[in-house]
Amino acid sequence: MSDPLNGVIKYKFVGFLGEGAVFIPPRESAPCYGHSAGLPFSAVNPSLPPHSHLRSSRPIPGTFGSVVQAENTETNEPVAIKLITLGDRFHPKYVEREILNHRALVHPHIVSFKEVFLTRSCLAIVMEFVGGGSLQGWVERNGRLPEWQCRCFFQQLILALHYSHKSLGISHRDIKLGNILLNDKYQVPILKLCDFGYSKDYSPV
Prior knowledge:
Layout: E1 11-17, E2 30-35, E3 55-56, E4 64-72, E5 78-85, H1 92-104, E6 113-119, E7 122-128, H2 135-142, H3 147-168, E8 170-171, E9 180-183, E10 190-193, E11 200-201
Antiparallel strand pairs: 1-4, 2-3, 2-6, 4-5, 5-7, 6-7, 8-11, 9-10
């Protein structure tokens, strides 16, 4: 198994999350560019000066939004990193929208946004790691859920959506079991909404 974070000093690769996240071994260590989560998204620009301590590898062209588990080497904190491959299928407008919307959402039932950095080959969005997998996987493993558990999960989801819609005017637009993660450290798993790639900000300008 190749390491998609080869040379990225701040984060150590732990494993792939989900299916279809396949990477080829790096041909060389490409310089990585620091990119503040503060934006503006002045862009995916190879002419930017290289960040001194980040290096990256090359994902397979067309692998869009693959997610890996990593560890912050400074704090030992587990994180999830979404790797969006640069190239013909990379749309800065939509990626910027995902970053701005996700960064604005701070809620116990929404996966936390941490930071973003840019390499020659991909843009990396660093997020909170939620270890219990998706609600889709939970249902596949456990079968039909009891009514009390459905009510519990639904209440948590509604809390996240009410906050997102009423407080910030942000609509997720891609709610499905695969985009709902579970923190299973507790007797009743804590639900976390993730993946804001299709989200849109409807708040007044």
